[in-house]
Specification:
The structure is a homodimer of 149-residue chains. Helix content of chain A is 15%, strand content 43%. By secondary structure, chain A is of the alpha+beta class. Chain A has a single domain (2-131), classed as Pnp Oxidase, Chain A. At the A-B interface, strand 2, strand 3, strand 6 and strand 7 of A face strand 2, strand 3, strand 6 and strand 7 of B.
Chain lengths: 149, 149
């Protein structure tokens, strides 16, 4: 069975944190009146929390104290291994002056230029990660589409 | 102002679809009793809908008829341009035999091996996309961390 079904490897927490620390960016999911929203963000890990920078728009307004999930993924060994790390927790705006002063020293430059004046901190409740070997065919070049019926 | 603030470009719908069709995989967000969940999925575009394959677990149970969001992103021009496309809609299991027979001809091989017996279809309600030039510093190598206080 092993040969035809490569198992998913559950990553230990310290490995999840290592991958998070080195991830260039991720996607933040939150619920806005029962409707899921998803937003690309860049972030840094600081003292076991995740700090990201955003504008005064949807992301910050609705994720204030609300549960959020952050996902980031990537490949290792030239694509031979795919990994994904998911953090669940609550995010809140960093308001305290002392915290803000510390935060601005973080190497947290917005991925996208424009006004990103709000710093937010995600305090993780759970962190999970897994890695697996992608199947060859999963690169599924779309050029090989079946003809339309 | 232009020089110091590269604007985000809003992508037209046809360009969003083109990018989606060529994306190897994305992340599906959904709300489970007010808590956001986020899952990497691979998918194919079929006749203006998005078909993905999943197991009988959390993803399929909770996204049945529920609102979902799918995000995928990537780079163009050797990383000079970053793009992100987000689809909002509802996902439902593909049950009809005729639909299933069509679906299995799609080049939709699970990214991760293991039992992924359920095909689901996301019918989009909105599709939005944008592209932007990432700031140099946004690669933020974590090696340049500030010393712990």
């Amino acid at each position: 069975m092993e040969a035809e079904n490569t198992p998913t490897e559950i990553l230990p927490a310290h490995e999840c944190w290592r991958l998070l620390r080195n991830a260039p960016f991720g996607r933040l999911a939150l619920c806005i009146q029962g409707i899921p929203g998803i937003f690309p963000v860049n972030f840094v890990v600081e003292h076991g929390t995740i700090v990201f920078r955003t504008s005064e728009g949807t992301k910050s307004r609705f994720s204030e104290k609300a549960p959020v999930a952050l996902e980031t993924d990537g490949t290792l060994n030239d694509g031979a291994l795919v990994w994904s790390v998911i953090v669940h927790g609550h995010a809140a705006t960093i308001n305290q002056t002392s915290e803000l002063l510390n935060t601005v020293t973080l190497p947290l430059h917005p991925w996208e230029s424009g006004r990103k004046d709000r710093f937010m901190r995600l305090v993780p409740e759970t962190i999970t990660g897994r890695s697996f070997t992608p199947l060859q065919a999963s690169t599924h070049p779309q050029g090989a589409r079946a003809p339309d019926e």
